[in-house]
Amino acid sequence: MVNIGNEWDGLLKDEFEKDYYLKLRQFLISEYNSRRIFPPMDDIFNALRYTSYSDVKAVILGQDPYHEIGQAHGLCFSVREGVTPPPSLVNIFKEIQDELGITPPKSGELTKWAKSGVLLLNTVLTVREGQANSHKGKGWEQLTDRVIELLNERGQPIVFLLWGRNARDKARLITNPRHLILQCAHPSPLSAHNGFFGCGHFIKANEFLEKNGIEPIDWKL
């Protein structure tokens, strides 16, 4: 079945045995055998693989993976080395530059953030080529909600960065007053000017971490 390779295996063991997940698994086997699905099967759980439960300092929530060839590799907003950064990611880099003076990188691969404690989690972990939201409502949301609930239970403070309506809907799962929730518009070109630009989230996240005795995140790639 699933082998993430860190604490998440034990924490999610019961989820992976539930009926909804077993049905999702059968659906995915059929999809991967008959269509082009992103990300590649081995990359589905990269967000959890790169950022173990105890290592999470911040959570950025995406919706579902990029759906064009070569882009998705299991981390929300991230694309593989050598792939042109999509518009939403370009806007994320622009906001970081405006807040912190960090020159936008040429690469859109965010693995360094993930290994530094930023859980880059999509709420749906797979998608058909060229069909956004095609795996919505198949069971992934139940699993990723459980991930958020488990993080909510943690004693050490976490920053949750919720951009756009879909991500902000998850604020209801974050009830522990130890944590910080930062919400604003999605970085998409369609909405970034409605509150993402100028949100100050990257500075605010690090200020919160430092205040709680946690090493801040190096947002430079």
Describe the structure.
The chain is α/β, with parallel strands linked by helices and 221 residues long. It is 33% helix and 11% strand. The protein has 8 helices and 6 strands, in the order ααβαβααββαβαβα. Strands 3-2-5-6 form a 4-stranded parallel beta sheet. Strand 5 (159-163), helix 7 (165-168) and strand 6 (180-184) form a beta-alpha-beta unit. The two termini are 33 Å apart.
Keywords, separated by commas or semicolons:
alpha/beta; globular; two-stranded antiparallel ribbon; 221 residues; 8 helices
Structure classification: alpha/beta
The helix fraction, in percent, is: 25-40%
Q: Quote the distance from N terminus to C terminus.
A: 33 Å
Unreliable stretches (pLDDT < 50, length at least 5) are: none
Element order: H for helix, E for strand: HHEHEHHEEHEHEH
Q: How many helices does DSSP assign?
A: 8
Tell me, briefly, the overall form: globular
How confident is the prediction overall: mean pLDDT? 97
Tell me the strand percentage band: 5-15%
Give the strand order of the largest sheet, numbering strands 1, 2, ... along the chain: 3-2-5-6
Secondary structure: number of strands: 6
- Any idea what the radius of gyration is? 17 Å
Oligomer: single chain
How is the biggest beta sheet arranged?
4 strands, parallel
